Automatic annotation (TrEMBL):
Residues 347-379 are annotated as: Disordered. Keywords: Cell membrane, Membrane, Transmembrane, Transmembrane helix. PANTHER family: HIGH-AFFINITY BRANCHED-CHAIN AMINO ACID TRANSPORT PROTEIN BRAE, HIGH-AFFINITY BRANCHED-CHAIN AMINO ACID TRANSPORT SYSTEM PERMEASE. This is Amino acid/amide ABC transporter membrane protein 2, HAAT family. CDD domains: TM_PBP1_LivM_like (cd06581). It comes from Actinomadura mexicana. It is found in: Cell membrane. The keyword Phosphoprotein does not apply. Pfam families: BPD_transp_2.
Length: 379
């Protein structure tokens, strides 16, 4: 049996199909990583490449929840903030904590971990927040749920700004070691892609999309609306928290204001442009918006064209994000790729196809799963 690369939006059939879908997502990640490695060699591009990888993880975390549940979240940056503070404080050397955070509780003051454990701490802290707040938030639907997640962002931002012994309040937390590397970012991206692909094609992901597409039918078939949304919420929070911990160990200094509306707008723009329904779309959208942002920032600084110096107005990059969102929502609301994913799928050999045509029959075709809601309702 031969395989081919295809773009599919339906559920892949059987274990091999799910493996092919995961492998396809990894292939897309590999292409992104290869391009990033080539650009990383240029000194001026190193930080941009690292930020791109972190933003890609952020958007994938956003996609895991929004793409599978249909609830637009305005609060995911709160999980990034929690992951950044938890991972940053965990990675900070004990001797620096005595100076920067002298009032830190004893258990945390003597706690110091390396790069990878710090990522897990950041992800776990964000997942715990989602687990605690999810049972209340996930009972809501539509605009009410979206506004509630925005409320979560506002609450978390204010708590971080007031928790002076833990975060230095509104002042910048500094002293976090600069541990984030190219390998660390893109290895984390690959792992998060596998996690999101596993969830999307698992029974839990099917149930979440069943509730998204046909909530009444799914609930009548015994699917728990709260539970199906909650697992997606917790997993997406974990992925977003890992991105926050990476971000903290890249910047080394940050404040609660680093995780607020501007960061939220960036994540939403990347998700919408690429297609909020798919992992491949998350990667593509992140790449497109990153390129647009960097080109416009260079124009803001001034570029020479045919001997003429051109300066764009300050802040034009955010105006471009708004224009990109309007254009995408008007002309292609599902995004560039929609819910389509890069996948490996089996293909019948050419000899079998030729024999089938000679016999007047159609060549063996790969069967696809039934629609998500229908398949899940019958489980």
């Amino acid at each position: 049996m031969m395989v081919r690369i295809a773009l599919r939006s339906d559920s892949p059939p059987g274990p091999l199909g799910r493996l092919g879908a995961t492998a396809g997502a990894l292939l897309a990640t590999g292409v992104v990583t290869l391009l990033g490695a080539l650009l990383f060699l240029a000194p001026t591009m190193a930080e941009i490449v690292l930020l791109f990888g972190i933003n890609a993880i952020l958007v994938i975390g956003f996609q895991v929840f929004v793409g599978n549940t249909g609830i637009v979240s305005f609060g995911h940056v709160a999980f990034m903030a929690v992951g950044a503070y938890a991972g940053g404080i965990a990675a900070m050397p004990v001797i620096d904590k005595e100076v920067v955070l002298p009032d830190l509780p004893g258990a945390l003051a003597g706690f110091e971990v390396g790069f990878l454990p710090a990522l897990l701490v950041g992800g776990a802290a964000a997942a715990l927040l989602a687990l605690l707040t999810g049972p209340a938030l996930m009972r809501l639907s539509g605009a009410a749920a979206s506004i509630a997640t925005l409320g979560l962002l506002i609450i978390v931002s204010n708590v971080l700004a007031q928790a002076t012994p833990l975060t230095r309040g509104p002042q910048s937390l500094f002293g976090v070691p600069e541990n984030t590397t190219f390998i660390g970012v893109y290895a984390s991206l690959a792992v998060m892609v596998v996690l999101s692909a596993w969830f999307k094609w698992s029974a839990a992901g099917l149930r979440a999309r069943a509730v998204r597409d046909q909530p009444a039918a799914a609930e009548a078939a015994g699917v728990s609306v709260l539970r199906s949304r909650l697992w997606a919420f917790v997993l997406s929070a974990f992925i977003t928290g890992v991105a926050g911990a990476l971000y903290a160990q890249l910047l080394t200094a940050f404040s609660p204001g680093s995780f607020y509306i501007p960061q939220l707008v960036l994540v939403i723009a990347m998700a919408i442009v690429g297609g909020v329904g798919g992992i491949s779309g998350a990667l593509l959208g992140t790449a497109v918006i990153t390129v647009i942002n960097e080109v416009l920032r260079k124009v803001e600084s001034g570029v020479s064209v045919a001997g003429a110096e051109i300066h764009a107005p300050s802040g034009i990059s955010f105006a471009a994000l708004g224009v990109a969102l309007i254009l995408m929502l008007r002309w292609r609301p599902s995004g560039l790729l929609g819910a389509s994913e890069v996948q490996f799928e089996p293909r019948a050999p050419a000899t079998e196809q030729g024999a089938a045509r000679a016999a007047g029959e159609e060549a063996p075709a790969v069967t696809t799963d039934r629609p998500t809601a229908e398949a899940t309702a019958e489980e």
